[in-house]
Structures are given as structure tokens and as C-alpha cells.
Design a protein that fits this description.
This protein has 279 residues and is of the alpha/beta class. It has two domains: 224 residues, Alkaline Phosphatase, subunit A, CATH 3.40.720; 37 residues, no CATH class. The protein has ten helices and eleven strands. Strands 2-11-8-1-7-3-6 form a seven-stranded mixed beta sheet, with helices on both faces. A hairpin with a 2-residue loop joins strand 4 and strand 5. It is globular.
Length: 279
């Protein structure tokens, strides 16, 4: 959505405005790129959609939660992301005071964490969310996908990749240093997005039958392998000289590419996210 001067408007404003009325469902896809969602929006058909772009309040989930929900909000927060527990139930993040603004926080990962996949499947998020939709509550549903680990079939895993020399290398690190892994990351990311959209569609259809209004958005975007040494420089600059050079030089010479969504990112690539009205 754009203001009168043509600039992209703040997601936070629209979240609070949307949830200010009753029977609202806000679906949050974790690390969902605007262009990727637009390219796969046909998965939601025959539902009608209106897609636009808004600015998130953070480049990672932690910053998004802390910077977006700064005052009470009339909604139950159903999240598959275990990070939410540490922020919302344990009083903040690394000393930052953060009072829980939600009516209730439902951590789906407590009951439905999949040890084999290393994530929470979207089907179980739907199962927990529908209970509160049936009660007529405003609900924020936060899926983990398309964020890895991937539900879709892929050799790119956090543990046990097919590249024997890189076994036990986390997905983002592996994709940042290996061109083949980056290509597989992009493919698996889209498959993960398609997977979560198919499941979100089922929840949306149930919500519409119950008289809800529905919006899909994301907490932040995702970098699929970006060459950005200047922004990494700005991100790491406060480290001591030896640590700084060790971490920055691989990006400067192009050995590393940025895959993921670093907190505190300088630049709009990670802040531009979709805002999709569905009916």
C-alpha cells in the first residue's frame, strides 16, 4: 500500500487497523518474499485476492515482534516459531523489556515439533488455529514456512546433507558458500512456499465460512544469495578488527553471498513484504 506521495506504507499500521474489528484472521508467512508470493498467488485461486506491498518493522522475526507489537492487540497469537516463546513468555530478548501484547500466545512447537524435519508442519498450525476461529477470536497465525528447514524434498538439510565434506552445516551457511547449494535453496524455498500456501488456503476457506476477513502477510523478506559486501560491512563494523576482517572479507571477495535475513539489516530488501487481502 502506498501513501499519497507514492511511498510504501508501514505494515504495523495496517496490522493494528485490521485487527481493530472482530472476526479477523491475519496469516504471517515466515521470511516470505513479495515477488515469490506474487509468482505463486494462483495457488489461492479460486479465492479472490488483492496484493500490495508494505514495509515490515524488522529484518528478522525477533525485530519484527519487538518493533511491531508495541501496544496491546485484540488477538490470539498462534505461532509455529519457537522463537516466539522466548520473546513473549520470558519477558523480552537479551535484556529488552517486552510485555506480551496478545490475548493469548499458543506455541504450536511445544506439541508438534517434528524432530525429523526440524520444524513444525503447517497442518498442525491449522489444527491449533481452528480452535480459536470457532470461538470467534481474532487470530494471528504465524507459520514457519517458507523459512527453512524445508518440508519439501531436498538434500539441503541442517543435518546430513549429501555433500559429505559439509555434513552438519546449517542450511544458510551452506547456501552462502556454495553455488550449487544456493540454487537448491531457491528451488526448495519456492516449494516450501507453495506447500504453506496450500495449507493456508484450507485455513482461509474455513475462516471465510465462519464469517472472517483474512489477510496474508510476512514478518520479513528473504535474501536468496545476495552479493552485498557494503551492507555486511555496516552490519559487522562494531566488531573488533580481527573478528570484523574474518567475517567480512569472504563477503567482500564474493566467496560468501548473503542467504537469509540478518537482524539489523541496512536496506529495504528485507523490509518489503506482501499484504494480501483474501475473500
Amino acid at each position: 500500500m502506498r501513501s499519497k506521495d507514492g511511498s510504501v506504507m508501514q505494515q504495523k499500521y495496517f496490522i493494528y487497523k485490521f485487527l481493530n474489528s472482530s472476526k479477523r484472521l491475519l496469516i504471517v508467512l515466515n521470511a516470505c518474499r513479495y515477488d515469490a508470493l506474487l509468482d505463486n498467488i494462483q495457488i489461492l485461486y479460486p479465492l479472490k485476492v488483492r496484493v500490495t506491498k508494505v514495509l515490515s518493522s524488522g529484518s528478522c522475526t525477533k525485530d519484527w515482534l519487538l518493533n511491531t507489537f508495541t501496544k496491546p492487540i485484540d488477538a490470539v497469537y498462534v505461532s509455529a516459531n519457537p522463537l516466539a516463546y522466548h520473546i513473549l513468555r520470558k519477558g523480552g530478548w537479551k535484556g529488552r523489556t517486552f510485555l506480551n501484547p496478545f490475548k493469548r500466545v499458543v506455541d504450536v512447537s511445544v506439541r508438534f515439533w517434528d524432530e525429523k524435519l526440524g520444524t513444525v508442519k503447517a497442518e498442525y498450525v491449522n489444527l491449533m488455529a481452528i480452535r480459536y476461529l470457532l470461538k470467534g477470536e481474532n487470530v494471528i497465525v504465524h507459520y514457519i514456512q517458507p523459512h527453512p528447514p524445508f518440508v519439501a524434498r531436498t538434500w539441503l538439510k541442517d543435518i546430513g546433507t549429501s555433500l559429505k565434506e559439509l555434513v552438519k552445516t546449517p542450511i544458510y551457511k551452506l547456501a552462502s558458500v556454495n553455488k550449487v547449494a544456493r540454487r537448491e535453496f531457491r528451488r526448495a524455498y519456492i516449494e516450501n512456499l507453495r506447500y504453506v500456501l496450500r495449507n493456508a488456503k484450507k485455513l482461509i476457506q474455513a475462516a471465510l465460512r465462519l464469517g472472517y476477513r483474512v489477510v496474508i502477510t510476512s514478518d520479513h523478506s528473504e535474501l536468496p544469495g545476495t552479493y552485498a559486501p557494503l551492507k555486511i560491512f555496516m552490519l559487522l563494523f562494531r566488531e573488533n578488527l580481527l573478528i570484523f576482517l574474518k567475517n567480512w572479507l569472504p563477503y567482500a571477495i564474493g566467496y560468501y553471498h548473503v542467504v537469509g535475513h540478518p537482524c539489523g539489516w541496512k536496506g529495504w530488501e528485507l523490509y518489503k513484504v506482501p499484504w494480501v487481502e483474501v475473500w
